[in-house]
Design goal:
Length: 184
């Protein structure tokens, strides 16, 4: 499956920030990084790959396109310019994660305590897009639908689930339960 360059770029940028442990907490709007941190060709091979694919002018236009779409922001800092990954950019990057890793479901491991994770959500109509995306994430995490807004999973996916809920700012609409099945 071919991934659009915009999606791949945002995912790579998110991954770099996450690897460095410098990704913003979900309650922050964006992450500030200096151009030197982000563009250092010795540290990040993906940046050189993108620059090779496009001339400097095209690359500048690409960055402006990402700014217009609201995925990144550029800010002047004391050391120079900084790149900011917005909440919208993080959300797009997380969506791409599952496009890049279609075998994610096959790598899921069942919980050792044999308990299930149950997710109940009531996301308002105003956030329909987030609700639909959240359902796709749940499916990709190995959840099964019990009802429209009640999903269960026997897999250990708590960290991934938390990451998605925080990135999409859905914590006040979602409840997570750990349940045990009782045989009758």
């Amino acid at each position: 499956m071919k991934i659009p360059l915009t999606d791949k770029f945002l995912w790579d940028l998110y991954s770099v920030f996450e690897e460095l442990g410098k990704i913003a907490e979900p309650h922050e709007i964006f992450t500030v990084r200096s151009w030197r941190d982000v563009c250092n060709p010795d540290s990040f091979k993906f940046w050189r790959e993108y620059e090779r694919k496009r001339s400097k002018r095209q690359f500048g236009q690409f960055i402006n396109y990402l700014k217009k779409k609201g995925y990144i922001k550029i800010k002047n800092l004391e050391e120079g310019r900084g790149i900011l990954l917005t909440v919208k950019g993080k959300q797009k990057a997380l969506t791409v994660e599952y496009k890049l890793n279609p075998k994610f479901k096959s790598k899921l491991k069942k919980r050792k305590d044999k308990k299930w994770i149950m997710v109940i959500f009531d996301i308002p109509e105003k956030k329909r897009k987030y609700r639909d995306n959240f359902r796709k994430f749940l499916y990709n995490l190995g959840f099964q639908k019990l009802q429209r807004s009640i999903w269960i999973s026997p897999y250990e996916v708590s960290k991934d689930l938390e990451k998605i809920i925080r990135a999409f700012l859905l914590d006040k609409f979602v409840k997570i339960f750990l349940i045990k099945e009782i045989e009758i």
